[in-house]
Design brief:
- It is a single chain.
- The protein has about 220 residues and is of the alpha/beta class.
- It has one domain: Spore Coat Polysaccharide Biosynthesis Protein SpsA, Chain A, CATH 3.90.550.10.
- A seven-stranded mixed beta sheet has the order 3-2-1-4-6-5-7, sandwiched between helices.
- Helix 1 packs antiparallel against helix 7.
- The longest helix is centred in the first third of the chain and has 20 residues.
- The mean pLDDT is about 90.
């Protein structure tokens, strides 16, 4: 993607598609979960790659299948040997990427298919001196982590990560701002998330895929 000045450098960790979205196993087959995960990533990449607020995008994954999307949307790709986990893979990537105090870096998940340009503008307009945390609607998770390098606190993604991030920021005397941004609130993990997405989304390839399916157990 063309380099844009004064924007955010986005990092997107992507789990191997054949092992993605296990909590949707009761309503989607392995093949459906892999396809749905792929399309959610593509929706997110399409939004990021056309945003004036995003300077650069780097995908971090062990799945070679992401190479097709990286080339399609002209993004960088860091292939890992294995899925080390969301926090471990991003931490390793940050140690290898050349970033400095002039950069703004956002860790963004691949399963927020309702992400829109206005959400990215709101994120980019945040105070650059604060650690910005965007909470998930459910499970106490964190759906965006915006900071100025170096990494101010250890990465602790997962269930209840928002509380742990805030506690860690306070312990390290890092200014922190918990900021709710609509398109970053709803990630798709549980069958109830999937049903909400099917009823409330305003489009995208992942949404169209789910609309075409009959999922009686949602």
């Amino acid at each position: 993607m063309p380099m844009k000045k004064n924007g955010i450098k986005a990092l997107i960790p992507v789990k191997a598609f054949n092992n993605a979205k296990l909590r949707l196993s009761e309503v989607l087959s392995p093949q459906q979960r892999a396809r749905f995960s792929y399309l959610m990533l593509e929706d997110v990449l399409q939004t990021l790659s056309t945003s004036r607020d995003i300077e650069k995008v780097t995908i971090i994954s062990s799945d070679i299948a992401v190479k097709v999307l990286a080339e399609k949307y002209d993004t960088d790709l860091m292939l890992t040997s294995v899925d080390g986990g969301y926090s471990e893979d991003v931490t390793q990537a940050l140690s290898e990427l050349k970033m400095n105090g002039d950069d703004r870096v956002a860790i963004v998940p691949s399963d927020v298919p309702q992400l829109r340009h206005e959400d990215l503008s709101e994120l980019n307009n945040s105070n650059s001196k604060e650690l910005i945390l965007c909470p998930a609607t459910s499970d106490g998770g964190t759906n965006a982590f915006l900071f100025t390098p170096p990494l101010p606190i250890p990465l602790l993604f997962g269930v209840d990560s928002l509380r742990r991030f805030v506690d860690s920021a306070m312990q390290h005397n890092v200014p922190v701002n918990v900021k709710r941004i609509a398109g970053l609130e709803r990630d798709i993990d549980q069958p109830s998330d999937l049903e909400w997405f099917r009823r409330h989304s305003n489009g995208g390839q992942a949404w169209a895929f789910i609309q075409e399916m009959e999922i009686s157990n949602c």
